[in-house]
């Protein structure tokens, strides 16, 4: 393994570990990264030696390490939007009763940064901090993709194969139809396409250049996202997305 290949594999491993709040096993990392277990273990051990990972020997689980915290603290001075967005996420959870989130676009994925629980006792746990989804999958990624340029949408859907993992409901023509609906409404709706019974809605948040760089979203059980309530939830999302876009600018 040399150069760019090593960097790519290391990056992938760190992302995989970040998606397991309770820690990831060597076999789970190897399977998700498409590596043999010995190769994955060597990379995991090397990252731990540098402080980027921490190994819980008793539980046989890998966690993000202290060096990442230090680097992240420094990077937060430039990239952290959590404090600006926290109030909007809190308002969404309070006013809707559902779980509310902030996600950020990273390349062709969205990453959840913030989660706030609502008052409704039955919740969906599809999304939590650190979880990644491709653009066009989940309401946050659909909202961001929908308000990207037509050229970017065409380029992405022309080469992304979302059906292999996410099913035929994420074929390019199906995603295009949901993009059209999202542009008409202003907000995205995910009708239990990831997990049966778990619905989501999202609205894009724009940067100073007018590009969709973040998204606010809500998730919950199907009965809480009936058509008669979607307009109310969509209005809340659009209002807070607009306010947050202004603050971020």
Automatic annotation (TrEMBL):
Q: Which UniProt keywords apply?
A: DNA-binding, Transcription, Transcription regulation
GO MF, one term, reads: DNA-binding transcription factor activity
* The organism's place on the tree of life at top rank: Bacteria
Q: Which residues form the IclR-ED domain?
A: 67-249
What name appears for this protein in its UniProt entry?
IclR family transcriptional regulator
Native organism is Plantibacter flavus
GO terms in the biological process aspect are: negative regulation of DNA-templated transcription
Q: What region holds the HTH iclR-type domain?
A: 4-66
- Pfam families documented for this protein: HTH_IclR, IclR_C
């Amino acid at each position: 393994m040399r150069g760019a290949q090593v960097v790519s594999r290391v990056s992938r491993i760190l992302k995989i570990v970040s998606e397991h709040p309770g820690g990831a096993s060597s076999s789970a990392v190897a399977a998700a990264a498409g590596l043999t277990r010995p190769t994955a273990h060597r990379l995991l051990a090397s990252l731990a030696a540098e402080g980027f990972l921490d190994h819980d020997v008793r539980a046989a689980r890998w966690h993000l390490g202290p060096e990442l915290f230090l680097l992240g603290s420094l990077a937060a001075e430039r990239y952290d939007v959590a404090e600006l967005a926290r109030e909007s996420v809190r308002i969404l959870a309070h006013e809707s009763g559902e779980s509310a989130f902030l996600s950020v676009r990273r390349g062709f994925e969205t990453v959840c940064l913030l989660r706030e629980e609502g008052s409704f006792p039955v919740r969906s746990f599809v999304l939590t901090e650190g979880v990644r989804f491709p653009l066009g999958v989940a309401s946050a990624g659909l909202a961001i993709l929908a308000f990207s340029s037509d050229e970017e949408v065409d380029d992405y859907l022309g080469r992304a194969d979302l059906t292999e993992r996410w099913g035929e409901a994420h074929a390019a023509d199906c995603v295009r139809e949901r993009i059209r609906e999202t542009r008409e409404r202003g907000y995205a709706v995910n009708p239990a396409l990831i997990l049966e019974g778990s619905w989501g809605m999202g609205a894009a948040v724009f940067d100073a250049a007018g590009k969709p760089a973040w998204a606010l979203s809500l998730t919950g059980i199907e009965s809480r996202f009936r058509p008669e309530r979607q307009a109310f939830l969509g209005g809340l999302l659009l209002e807070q997305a607009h306010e947050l876009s202004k603050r971020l600018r």
